[in-house]
Amino acid sequence: xxxxxxxxxxxxxxxxxxxxxxxxxxxxxxxxxxxxxxxxxxxxxxxxxxxxxxxxxxxxxxxxxxxxxxxxxxxxxxxxxxxxxxxxxxxxxxxxxxxxxxxxxxxxxxxxxxxxxxxxxxxxxxxxxxxxxxxxxxxxxxxxxxxxxxxxxxxxxxxxxxxxxxxxxxxxxxxxxxxxxxxxxxxxxxxxxxxxxxxxxxxxxxxxxxxxxxxxxxxxxxxxxxxxxxxxxxxxxxxxxxxxxxxxxxxxxxxxxxxxxxxxxxxxxxxxxxxxxxxxxxxxxxxxxxxxxxxxxxxxxxxxxxxxxxxxxxxxxxxxxxxxxxxxxxxxxxxxxx
Length: 338
Fold this sequence. Notes:
The protein has 16 helices and 13 strands. It has helices at residues 7-26, 33-45, 59-69, 85-89, 126-129, 133-138, 173-176, 190-200, 214-224, 231-242, 253-258, 265-281, 289-294, 296-300, 308-313, 317-327, and strands at residues 49-52, 70-71, 74-78, 90-96, 102-108, 115-119, 140-143, 146-149, 155-160, 181-184, 212-213, 259-261, 305-306. Helix 10 crosses helix 12 (265-281). It is globular. The two termini are 39 Å apart. The mean pLDDT is 88.
């Protein structure tokens, strides 16, 4: 982007550059368009992403491909039960110089990167999981009273396996709330699986090109925040968020019956930012109701907690959220106040 360009020109450039990154990823990743778009949305708004899926679906390959497409520092942390916070954040070590003088010096851990893959994050203990709370929210690390800032853009991509429960620790609600999106990776269809077999069982090796650096990503993050949300659309996403609060003024019968806790204000912030990306990609400069609806599930599915009745009846989180999405009207009733 150059100085003096209009918002419309910069928006058109963003759409073009976004498609360039997406195309490079698609050279390696077959299908899963919604997942790729979700991850790129997280990246371009400065959020983090939690990717859930059974083993072997390409979660790690997807993150590695993203890192190869972007000219950013990349590190991978394999979470295990014996992993300690210092293994992630770093620690103070005694260093001896040439004169024999000893002093403590902070040795940075693998979290000091720009794209961090937290692989199988639910295998680490809660103590180790919570070590990333400050890093994900404040994008900094505090050790012995010293604050170390992360290099922007800083993006955490965490994966977890939903079917293995032995030896795993569910992520605490406070950490789940720090993820911008929770994306569910499903199975490939027949055509996609044929393409995967062809690409991976022959001599052809496909490597994506690096097409974007960190400085450009930061510029696009700033541009996205300039997209306009009209007051009635903002009120709609706020009411969607409030509809997840059991026994609240905007709650629905499904909310009161099946939810124990609703979304935090981060849910509304996520809806607004993600909807802005949707608007830009559609060639618009203001957010529509449909933009909000398209991002509702990935923004909310990890921010609401089912109660015992829902678990006993086998009710899934997405089912409750879809009911909320269908029943909350675009226009607020006059008797309700914001």
